[in-house]
Each structure stands twice: as C-alpha cells, then as structure tokens.
Design brief:
The chain is of the alpha/beta class. It has a single domain, classed as HUPs (Rossmann fold), CATH 3.40.50. Helices cover 43% and strands 28% of the residues. It contains six helices and six strands; from the N terminus they run βαβααβαβααββ. A six-stranded mixed β-sheet has the order 3-2-1-4-5-6, sandwiched between helices. Strand 5 and strand 6 form a beta hairpin. The termini are close together.
Length: 171
C-alpha cells in the first residue's frame, strides 16, 4: 500500500502523522510525506522596490529551508518506526490542492492521510478546505484527521481525534 501524507506546519498535520505512526503497516507499505509550498503572490513587486523583492525572496527561501528540514526530521522518524518500509519526503511547489492530487496520481497512492484545519465561517468560505477538495477529487481513499474538543462527564474539556474517511473504510 502506498500512503501519501501531505503536511504543513500545523497541529492537525502532526495529528495525521501521529495517526500513521501509531499503526502497524505491512512491510510492503510505502510512505511519502510531502509539504507543498505555495509561492508568495508578489509577482511584479521588483518593479516598485528591488529591496522589497529581495526581502520577499529571502523570506521565501528561508521558509522552504525550514520546510525541508522539517520533512527530513519527519522522514527520519518514520524510518526509525518502520525500518523495513520505504519512506520518502519532498517539498513540492504549486497550488496546494492541485499539487497533492497530482502527486497522488503520479505516485499511484492508495491512501492519502491528512489533517484538517478547524476553519469555520468566513475563513472557510474564503480559503476553502484543502482536505475536502482533495477528498472530493482524489481517485484513492482519503483519511482526514481532525482534532475536536469534547466535554467529558466531569465537565473537563478533552481533545480527541476524529477520523473521517472517503472511499472506503478507515484503516
């Protein structure tokens, strides 16, 4: 089974990663961890301020470097947990939704496991849900991991992980 795990720097991505790490997988399973970098939308800024353009370029390079280091640490964690499995990671560039779906098709993923932000209202309307879009357009099963807050019988708040599956049963 080929498991694609798109991540960003959010807590929901950490939950998705941990969800995969907490399970036992067949030795044949392969893991591919990706972080999609969406380029900063500052095309043409160099016409107005070369110094501002350089600052944007430097900030973007620093961000990509941080993402690459994070992916490297995550891949190493997966290799330690699953020493007999194939594990790879990469930083890809492009529109987040389209790049995840393209990687799913190109790599031949059998399952996508990803986190979902808790955006609501206007934020959800403006930004949309990457997880929902991927689930709705993917040709493989998609497992969406999201954190939810529940109040237990004693009145204490407690974080739990909800798993939503599309295209088959959750594994």
């Amino acid at each position: 089974m080929k498991i694609l795990i798109p991540v960003d720097e959010s807590e929901c991505s950490e939950l998705a990663l941990q969800s995969v790490l907490d399970r036992d997988w067949a030795v044949e399973s392969q893991f591919r961890i990706i972080n999609v970098h969406e380029p900063f939308p500052f095309a043409g800024v160099e016409m107005y301020s070369p110094r501002a353009a350089q600052s944007v370029t430097d900030a973007e390079k620093d961000l990509v470097k941080e993402k690459r280091e994070s992916i490297g640490r995550t891949v190493e964690k997966f290799r330690m947990r699953f020493p007999s499995n194939s594990v790879s990671g990469d930083i890809l560039t492009g529109d987040i939704r389209e790049t995840i779906l393209s990687e799913e098709r190109d790599w031949g993923a059998d399952l996508i496991v990803m986190g979902s932000h808790k955006r609501k209202g206007l934020g959800r309307l403006l930004l949309g849900s990457v997880a929902e879009s991927v689930a709705g357009n993917s040709s493989c099963s998609v497992e969406i991991i999201k954190e939810s807050l529940h109040i237990d019988a004693s009145g204490e708040s407690k974080n739990e992980v909800d798993t939503i599956s599309k295209g088959g049963e959750c594994l």
